[in-house]
Design a protein that fits this description.
The protein is low in regular secondary structure and 191 residues long. Helices cover 0% and strands 0% of the residues. The protein contains no helices and no strands. The N and C termini lie far apart (49 Å).
Length: 191
C-alpha cells in the first residue's frame, strides 16, 4: 500500500506494483518505465510528467488522475478505467487502450499515433488537436467527443460511433477509414 507515499522523481522502473494503491499523492516525474501496475488503484493520483514507457496498467483505475505530459509509449492500458483523467500533451504512441473507459477524459494535444483504441469508450472525451495518425479506433465509442483539429490521417474508424461528435477542422486523407453513415448521426462538421 503506497497510498500515502510521495514518489515524485523516484525511479521504480521494472518494479512489480500489482494491486497497489497510490491515491491522491503527488508523484510527479516518477519513473515507472516497464513497471507492473496491473489492477493498481491510482484514482486522483498526480503523476504529471511521469515515465510509464511500456508499463503494464491492465485493469488499473486512474479515475480523475492527472497524467498530463506523461510518457506512456507502448504501455498496456487494456480495460483501464480513466474516467475524467487529464492526459493533456501525453505521449501515448503505440500503447494499447483497447476496451478502456475514457469517458470525459482530456486528451488535448496528446500523441496517440499508432495507438490501439479498439472498442474504447471515449464518450465526451476532448481529443482537440490530438494526433491519431494510423490509430486503430475500430468499434470505438466517440459519441459527443470533441475532435476539433485532430489529425486522423491513416486512422481506422470502422464500426466507430461518432454520433454527436465535433469533427471541426480535423485532418484526414485517403487512408483514413470511416464508419458507415448511420454512425455519424448528429455529428458536426462531417468531412
Amino acid at each position: 500500500d503506497l497510498s500515502r507515499a510521495d514518489l515524485s522523481g523516484v525511479d521504480l522502473s521494472g518494479v512489480d506494483l500489482r494491486i497497489t494503491e497510490i491515491l491522491g499523492i503527488p508523484n510527479r516525474g516518477a519513473k515507472l518505465n516497464g513497471a507492473n501496475l496491473r489492477g493498481a488503484n491510482l484514482n486522483k493520483a498526480d503523476i504529471r510528467g511521469a515515465g510509464l514507457i511500456g508499463a503494464n496498467l491492465i485493469e488499473s483505475r486512474l479515475i480523475r488522475a492527472d497524467l498530463s505530459s506523461t510518457d506512456l509509449k507502448g504501455a498496456d492500458l487494456r480495460w483501464t478505467q480513466l474516467f475524467g483523467a487529464e492526459l493533456r500533451n501525453a505521449d501515448i504512441r503505440g500503447a494499447d487502450l483497447s476496451g478502456a473507459q475514457l469517458g470525459f477524459v482530456d486528451l488535448t494535444g496528446a500523441n496517440l499515433n499508432a495507438t490501439k483504441l479498439r472498442s474504447t469508450h471515449l464518450q465526451y472525451a476532448n481529443l482537440s488537436w490530438a494526433s491519431l495518425q494510423v490509430a486503430d479506433l475500430i468499434g470505438a465509442d466517440l459519441r459527443h467527443a470533441t475532435l476539433r483539429g485532430a489529425d486522423l490521417r491513416g486512422a481506422d474508424l470502422r464500426e466507430s460511433d461518432l454520433r454527436m461528435a465535433n469533427l471541426r477542422s480535423i485532418e484526414w486523407d485517403n487512408s483514413t477509414w470511416w464508419p458507415i453513415n448511420s454512425k455519424f448521426e448528429g455529428a458536426r462538421n462531417i468531412p
